[in-house]
Every structure is written in C-alpha cells, then in structure tokens.
Write the structure tokens for this entry.
Amino acid sequence: MLDTTRIRADFPILARKENGKRLVYLDNAATSQKPRKVIDAIVHYYSEHNANVHRGAYTLAVEATDAYEAARTAVARFVNAWSPEGVIFTRGTTESINLVAGSWGRAFVHGGDHVVVTAMDHHSNIVPWQILCREKGATLRMVEITRDGRIDLIDFGRALEDSPKIVAFPYVSNSLGTVNPAAQLIRLAHAAGALTIVDGAQSSPHVRVDVRALDCDFYALSGHKMLGPMGSGALVAKPELLEIMPPYHGGGEMIERVWDDHSSWNKVPHKFEGGTPNVEAAVGLGAAIAYLEQLGMEKIAEHEQEMVRITIERLSQVDGVTVYGPKDHRAGVVPFTYGDVHPHDLATILDRDGVCIRAGHHCTQPLMRRLGVAATARASFYIYNDVDDIDALVTAVRKAGELFGVLAS
Amino acid sequence: MSDLGELYQQVILDHNRNPRNFKRLEAPSRKSEGNNPLCGDRIQLYVQLDGDTISDIGFQMPQGAGCAISKASASLMTDAVKGKTTSNAESLFQAFRDMLAGGANAPGKLAAFSGVRAFPSRIKCANLAWHALHAALQNSGDPVTTESAKDF
C-alpha cells in the first residue's frame, strides 16, 4: 500500500472541508486532483519561461520550447513510445481519437469498409467513428460484452471476419473498471489486417503502459486523469503512420511552406500541432509523470486493487447494493446501484458527507443499455485514497438507505 | 442531516415511491417530452384539455430514468394542475420557478420543494416536469431540457 498520509499532504485540495467533513474524493475516473508539484510547475513556467514555442529567436522562447519538448520526451518514456516524435500533444483522449478519425480515417476509410468499436467504449471512442462511418458510407460494428462485463471474445472474432480497417477499444473501462486483454486483442486485430486504437484514458493513470509491447497503432491518453492539468493529453502513434497521415488542423506551426494556393507540411509531430499549443498543459503533464514515476506505476496499481477489493467487500455487505463489473482483472473503478435509490439522489446524499462520487451513464450509454440500468453510482480511486475514504463511502451509503428506506430491487 | 431532510421531505419520498398520475393517456390533446441527457432524466407528459381546463394529466419515465426529485416533482405537479385552467397551471409554474430562484414558497404541497434551493445541482431535476408542462400547454412540440437553461 502507498503511504497515503504523505501523498495526501502533497495535494492542497484534499485539505479542504466539505460541509465540515474531510473531502473524500472518489471521482478519479472523471478527473484526478493535482499535487503541489504540478501546480508549481505551471506557476513556474509562467513566472520564468513563458514565450511562444518553436519560433522565437530569443532565450525565453528557447526555454519555453525546451520545456515543451521535454514534456513530450517524458510522455514518450512514460508509455514507452516508439519515439518522442510519435507523441502529439492534444487536449486529451477525446481530441486524440478525433485526430485519428479525422486524419487517418478520412484518408484511409472508404465506403463499404468496416470499423469496429466495443459496447464498453466511452462515447469519445464511439462517436468520432460514427461520424466518420456516416460520412464515408462505412459500417460501424459494435462488439458485445459478456454478462460479467468483459469484451466478448467470440463476438470480437466475428467482427474481425469483416476485415475491418481499424479496431477501437478501451484498455480499461471507465464504467466497469474492466482491464481488457489489450495485447491479445491487438494481436487478433492485426492478424485480421486491422489497425488498432486504444483508449488509454483510464489505463495511463493506473497501470504500467508499454505501447511497444502492446504493439497498438494508436494510443490516446488524458493528462488530467493522471495528476496533470485539464486540457493536457496526447496521441501516441507509430511514427510511420503519422508520416502518411494528412494534417488534422490547418494553421501556423504545422506548415513547412505556404504558397498562395497550397502548402507543404512540417515534420511529425508538428504537422499535427497547428496553432500555439497549450505549453502550460504539457509542462504540467511532465511534472505529473515525474510524480507518478517516483511512486512507481506497479505500486499505484497494487494500491488501487486493494482499495477496490476492500470497497467491493464492504459495499457487498450492504443489503440492496449491486456491484457491476468483472470479479477480477479490474482497475480502480467500482460501479454500483443501491436498491431503488436513484444514483443521483445517492450522490447528493453522499456529497453532504463530503463524499464525491459520479452518478449517471458515465458517457457509456450503449454499455448502460446492455447492463439494463439507466444510471449507476461510481466510486473511483487513486493514489491518495485510503481505507478512511472507503469507510466514509460505506457509512454514507448506509445513511442514504435509512433516509430512503431502501427497497432492494 | 437537516438540509438533506429538507430536500427529501416525506411527501417527496412518498411521491417518488408512489407517483400519482403515473400513466400514459391514450389520445391526449397535448403531449411533450423532457430530457436531461447529461444526467439521464427523461419524462413523457400527456395532457387532456377540456376547453381551457386540464381534465386529465399523466406522465411516464422510462425505468430508472428519473431521480427522486424529478419523479416526485412530476407527480406533485400533475396533482396540482389537474382540474385547473391552463392559465392557473402557468401561474403555478411561475410560482414554482420563483420559489426555486429564492422567492416565496409555492402554494400547497409544492412548497415541499423549497429545500431544493440549497442544492443548486438539483434544481434542474425539480424543474424538468414543469418545463415539459409549459411546452405541452404552448403546444411547442419540441423536447425540453433544463440542463442548459440559465432560465429556471
């Protein structure tokens, strides 16, 4: 287990009281809190080094560019990317996936082609592909999940028989916590001739990621879920794919030369980073990675597994609680319902005890339809959560039960 | 627990568990839909008009698509406006909005929702059915939402 007392002291927001109670932040799958080091890195950047990157011929601009590119190298090392040039800074996972759909997809997916997503994908890994398929006259195929919340490998195999151009799936499900067998899915997809895009929004903060070992083609991540600033994120891709892809956003920075009627493109990754980038976000993400690496991703994963194990055990003892998701191979997410208490009411009641959870469909409506629920409550954990947080959660849930006089459904 | 007690008053818990007028009207004079896609609340509202009077009213929410506040609000609303004229119903809508915006309590059992004022994130739940009623009476036909509206 991590030394949560020491870690909590690094997070200024955790000193905040909510209705006079200790803040119990259990909505980490939505966004993580930020340690002092990340906040300081941003302040330091603006206080000492701020200038526009890649264009100034003065010292300050060189420093800003160095800070920005150092963050790129940090992301590359963190996920074992093929090269720093294979890391494109984006606003987050959503933009990373839209970049692939809008650039690679627009160039290489044609009418009659197939694109595969799964029923446990976040809307951000479904909707960009729906838009692309609609535009191209391609077919979008959604792979089913098993009753216990894993990707149905038999249906996955069937979907591959259509020789899809690309297969999209989440490494870790944000709604269920399922850790998918990513390497295996990628091998199968490649054998069928498809490229793969992995939604890494929920894996990057919680497990050691090695994109080269996975051998995926595209990997999307969000910085804000892994201690970094809002609006930080990256697309990690095989450099040879980035070379043949057309630009995503036209503008400054991404060009080599601009004639009156056409242009040529800058080198990868700059080809995909039109406009002034969010340098603050990149620098903050670099600081977040340094913090995570100091703790060690294996230790982080171990800590969260323990939190999840205890939470499921304690919640299951409450009459009327149903926990969703697989028994094992799951990361720090515990989705549950409580009798006929609507998850939004549950979240309101928990909030009064300072317990922050998410309630709703978690941007996974196709999944919720399959689970047969309109909404779930979701507690999700990170490095600063401890057993006291779990106690507060379970106590507040019991309190909600008393208030509502729970009828087990 | 006192402000939670204010929010989840007994009458609200009762109407959540046993919603009144929880039915579909077969051939209503008016119908409307309320949808808060971010939180998942959905309501279908059916209104039967006899001249200017709301002679019958019913609502439905898909299984699990309504929290206690939105369901109880719809239930108490239908009780409050049944038998009233459309202009009376619109006045109640105004009184309800005023209450949630910090004004005086709405009449009768509707005052039970005064506790929602202390929970800004839940005002949209209490409002949804009323905006659907307004849309039905205006015969606008467009689904309503209270998630984006500054206006409550």
Summary: Chain B is about 40% helix and 15% strand.
